[in-house]
Amino acid sequence: MVAKKTALDKDLKWQRRMDAGAGETASLSAKLGLALVFLLACSAFVAFHMGGLPQSGFLIAAAVIGGYMALNIGANDVANNVGPAVGSKALTMVGALLIAAVFEAAGAIIAGGDVVGTIKNGIIDPTQMPDAQTFVWAMMAALLAAALWLNLATWLGAPVSTTHSIVGGVMGAGMAAVGIGAVNWPTMGTIAASWVISPVLGGVIAAGFLAFIKFRILYTDNRVEAARKWVPILVGVMVSAFTMYLMMKGIKKIWAADTWQVIVIGIAAFFVTLLPTRKAVLHASRNMTGRRKEIASLFRIPLIVSAALLSFAHGSNDVANAIGPLAAIVSGVDSGEIVTSAPIPIWVMVIGAIGISAGLILFGPKLIKTVGSKITKLDPIRAYTVALSAALTVIVASALGLPVSSTHIAVGAVFGVGFLRETLSHRRRVDNAPMLVGEDTETDEQKQHIEALRQLDPAQAEKAEKKLRKRLLVRRRYAVTIATAWVITVPAGAFLGALLFFTIRGIML
Q: How many structural domains are present in the chain?
């Protein structure tokens, strides 16, 4: 009888796995079908409006590739903006997808600019291109190479830099078209430096703010009073940072403010925010007892706002990664000349904006989960420090003239938060000190379990406490996967760009 029951249980488990797998396959097929509909719509629009132009086939193919690139930017890069908010449960996945999709599209359309640079970051010298046709082939190869690499990285679960992807594609296609001398190697050196600068700066700033919150609020005797004092200041710092961040990156193509204007407006934003935030925190904390979850709830609304603003700034900046080469192809086909900057037709901007939002909704949840919960556990406090770090790091790096990647900053900040938690936990274990109230490695349930166990069996309680402290709070396999993907992004993009250029040229000649 037992044997029959065991066999039945195995059959039921197998059936459940099969049903789950079938459900996932059906869901993926539906998503791929919707993505294909979007790409077909791109091609149909261009064919209908520009089918009579010379080389209209290039424009149709370029529109499809640009749409494919936009889908992959949405699937991979946007996760950095909303992942921490989802991982901390400040936002649901559906809420995050809706907010990010709306603000990404708004940033792209409202603040994306009227003109875009077609050679990303000056990686190659376009004057060395022999003719406009070769230039168009190179841009098409670069765009497709970047899109393919982003697609692969998303499938592997690695958030990578969209900018680095397109830089690699442009470099490889340029070298294939002209030779190694076409590449601006000093610029490539600064981009390579950003592989280290971006995550380190992001991690250090995020860890610094988290340490401040811990020792000024969470590890104090009266958390509620400490929160009433410091949370309004921290929110003011965030508002100031995001005001300057948006002026520098989000609306710079609408209004190019000078350095002093950015600083003055940022300081003003801090003081304008301070008083109403104090009143709001005082009201929200009236019935608080000082539990960690209660204190963390004070950061929820600022975290949601930060996710929206990061998405807006990302849409206004990174849409150029999808439409820059596409605008180059359109201008090159239309004028028959090599262009380094090009006006953006409204249909090109719309393809970029809709594509990013569609890619986020259809394929973004995988990377959102990776950034938000798989690297390390986030709550609203830790997620807040990640979002604040994303804005502050860009400001600091811009002031110092350092190249940074928003993707590397955000992911580096998540790692910085996780490694700080590990450091504090291990330090207390080495010192053989009792756990602090609110220690990160201890949930309320675990604390109660250890305290109850201590009354019954002190030796077992000590073992459980040590095991809890030894736990690694950053998943190393994700660190290795992501770091590897970062390092090979530019070389991989370059290899694909060169290969695709030769392929396109071979087909056309």
A: 1
Angle CA 72–75–80, to nearest 5: 120
Is 28 domain-assigned? no
Q: Looking at residue 21, what is its pLDDT?
A: 45
In a domain, 17, yes or no: no
Residue 341 belongs to what domain range? 39-440+474-508
How does DSSP classify residue 332? Answer: H
Backbone angles phi, psi at 432, to 5 degrees: 55, 40
Q: Could you tell me the two tokens for 349?
A: 């901007």
Q: CB burial class (10 A; 0-12, 13-18, 19+) of residue 7?
A: exposed
Q: Please state, as a whole number, how many other Cβ atoms lie within 10 Å of the Cβ of residue 345.
A: 17
Q: Which helix (H) or strand (E) holds 342?
A: strand 341-343
HEC-encoded secondary structure of 424-486: HHHHHHHCCCCCCCCCCCCCHHHHHHHHHHHHHCHHHHHHHHHHHHHCCCCCHHHHHHHHHHH
Contact 157, 484 (CB under 8 A): no
What global pTM score does this model have? Answer: 0.83
Task: Note the pLDDT tens digit of each residue in 90-147.
Answer: 999 999 999 988 888 888 877 766 555 556 557 887 778 888 888 888 989 999 999 9
Which residue's structure tokens are 């860890």?
207
Residue by residue, DSSP assigns 104-152 as HHHHHHHHS-SEEESSGGG-B-GGG-SSHHHHHHHHHHHHHHHHHHHHH
How far CA 197 is from CA of 27, 156, 168, 394, 502, in Å, comes to 39, 24, 19, 11, 34
Higher confidence at residue 465 or residue 312?
312
Residue 21 counted as domain residue: no
For residue 341, give the H/E element and its range.
Answer: strand 341-343
Q: Return the bridge partners of 343, or none.
A: 115
Mean per-residue pLDDT over the chain, rounded: 82
| Residue 89 exposed, middle or buried by CB count within 10 Å (0-12, 13-18, 19+) | middle
Beta carbons of 341 and 324 less than 8 angstroms apart: no
**Cβ–Cβ < 8 Å for 371, 159:** yes
Give, rounded to a whole angstrom, the gap between the first and last alpha carbons of the chain.
Answer: 74
pLDDT at 15: 52
Residue 126 located in a structural domain: yes
Report the alpha-carbon distance of residue 65 to residue 71 in Å, rounded: 10
State how far Cα 317 lies from the chain centre: 13
